[in-house]
Amino acid sequence: MTTSTGSMTGGLAAGFHDPVHDAQGVFRDVLRAMSRPGEVRETAVQIDPPAPLNIAGAAVCLALLDFETPLWIDGGGRDADGAASFLTFHTGAPRATGPAQADFVLVADGRILPAFDTFRQGTDEAPEGSATLIVQVADLAAASPDAAGAWRLDGPGIDGTVGLHVSGLPDGIADDLARNADRFPRGIDLILCAGRRIAALPRTTRVEG
Fold this sequence. Notes:
CATH architecture: 3-Layer(aba) Sandwich
Helix content: 10-25%
Order of helices and strands: EEHEHEHEEEEEHEEE
Structural class: alpha/beta
Strand order of the largest sheet: 3-11-10-6-5-4
Number of strands: 12
Strand content: 15-25%
Number of helices: 4
Oligomer: single chain
Number of domains: 1
């Protein structure tokens, strides 16, 4: 969790302006999103992260990472060293040597999201050993389950079904998410970030779309 203040620190962009309050607020947003899949939250924190981070993606990382959570960054074809230095400095999170060694994975461009099998899936005995993916996408919006182009979601935390519209992910990703749910209790959890908006798809959520 970030503990940094100020506009610049050693040449790095600042983390949260109010570290305790901001981190707690973002953490609550993530918990709410995870407990109510498909609900879109909007963070109010004021940060100016380095590319290729967006505000929501940076805020989620600052709130969740610490020195015990190895992070792997897929820069989406862009140089991610600045983002990695920013996150390591403000959170203490070590850089994983590869995606299979990471507790958290930041995917800067969801359009080129790697195959889910690339990441730690956990085991039936220790499902908590799986990775959490923080995926930056082009847009997120709540939608009717029957709306054109929307995903239909059901599962724990959802009353009936809800809809979620996501742009900026690979074609066929809904099928991958369905297979991910079939692996339960193994599987990965996703936190989707667009601009200031956050939504979550835990492994328990069934996706059609």
